[in-house]
Amino acid sequence: MRILMITNLIPYPPTSGGQLRAYHLLRRIAEQHEVWLAAHLFSPDDAKGIPHLETFCHRVITGRMQRRHPVAHLPGLLRFALAGWPLELKFPRSTELIDKLRHLLADTSFDIVQIEESRLALYRELLPKNTQSRCVLAFYDIGFHQMDRIARVTPMGIMKARMWLQSRQMRRWEPRYAARFDYCITVSEGDRNLLIGANPRLQVEVIPNGVDTKALQPLPDADGPPALLFVGAMHYTPSRDAALYLCDEVLPRVWQRVPAAEAWIVGADPPERLKHVDANRVHVAGWVDDVQPYYRRCRVCVTPLRAGGGTRLKILEAMALGRPVVSTALGREGLDVIDGEHLLVADDPDQIAEQIARLLNDPALVERITTKGRRLVEDHYDWDAIAAQQMELYERVSRTG
Predict the structure, then answer these.
(1) Segments in 178-224 forming alpha helices (H)
(2) What percent of the chain has pLDDT over 90?
(3) 204 close to 181: Cβ distance less than 8 angstroms
(4) Which of 19, 145, 256, 369 could covalently link to 11 via disulfide, CB atoms 3.0 to 4.6 Å apart?
(5) What Rg, from alpha-carbon coordinates, does the chain have?
């Protein structure tokens, strides 16, 4: 088959959840099919990943994202409003990529065109009217549900109002526009139920997130002071909120129980306020080339999410590396995990701190949870099996054409 995948970010190096998913699936699918990739370039540095992707992709097409004065967006926003499209969808679009895709799709036939994330779904408009391509839309999360949750944890102000309005617009548009695709993919059964509940006519397949269990092997026990690790790209609002929540609400309660505990905050674009927390016990690393050294020095991983959707690849990554996880109930959503068996779940700051302290002080509990967590990712969340599931979907969708 000839397959075109359209992504928001160049998926190499794979540092965010979306990049990890796209990279591992593309690489495996390319072993059996001819794969083309189209993606945005947010900075010149993004292009550095293209040569690696071209070692297995037939072709990589990119378009620059350009900063424009807000007034320059007004004509486009008016057009979106008249079309009944959420105004926020105007921004994750590249004029350069639109032009390249329009020419490509006019000249080249694809068996499958897959668009990653519903906020990019309008690239579907570029396909010729008489296209024979089968179209697939992958939901990393359900946009209207995610935005509603973000609105709930955002302080009163313009951003809260914007998220609330955006969630209402997406609730009307997202399930309806998804019907223009032959199939939809969600990463969890819960997201599938949300989508089907909003539009029962949709064809939806659950293809979960995963982890490379061959590349990520269990690490030895951490040396040094008791330390916990938070990993997340903090330009993503739910991750930024989780990092601040950890520092403001959870860590003071951890220190009441384990005074020597340290915390490492790893991920792109940490908020300025994190730089003013206790520098002796909280280390803000920001973006790093390799996160494994931080897993090596930390005994516990924490996922205190209060917003967002989809599933957390970082939980699977921690399990693969043999590190126990403390997560909120929202953070572990969509994963086939059992509280007390594969990880520990808590939602109140005191309860989160208590579970962290348990793991820092109880090696037997750590051993039990990490052993079962590693077995779970090997059996159910390895990228090889997940890519095979996606390719089987492609075969099924192509037969319906």
Answers:
(1) 189-198
(2) 68
(3) no
(4) 19
(5) 21
Q: How far is CA 248 from CA 146, 254, 284, in A?
A: 23, 11, 14
The tokens of 223 are what? 């040396």
**Model confidence pLDDT, tens digit, residues 355-385:** 999 999 999 999 999 999 999 999 999 999 9
Angle, in degrees to the nearest 10, between helices 158-177 and 189-198: 80
Please give the C-alpha separations between residue 59 and each of 34, 53, 55, 208, 297, in angstroms, as whole numbers: 9, 9, 9, 26, 40
Cα 148 to chain centroid, rounded? 17
For each of the domains in the chain, give its residue range(s) and CATH number, in order of start: 2-210+382-399 (3.40.50.2000), 227-380 (3.40.50.2000)
Helix (H) or strand (E) holding 64: strand 59-64
Using alpha carbons, select from 381, 337, 30, 377 the residue that is nearest to residue 208.
381
Reported pTM? 0.87
Q: Judge whether 216 and 320 are in contact, CB under 8 Å.
A: yes
Q: Which of 361, 379, 286 is nearest to 324 (CA)?
A: 361
DSSP state of 246: I
Side chain identity at residue 93, one-letter code: R
Task: Please tell me the number of Cα atoms within 13 Å of 336 on its side-chain side.
Answer: 17
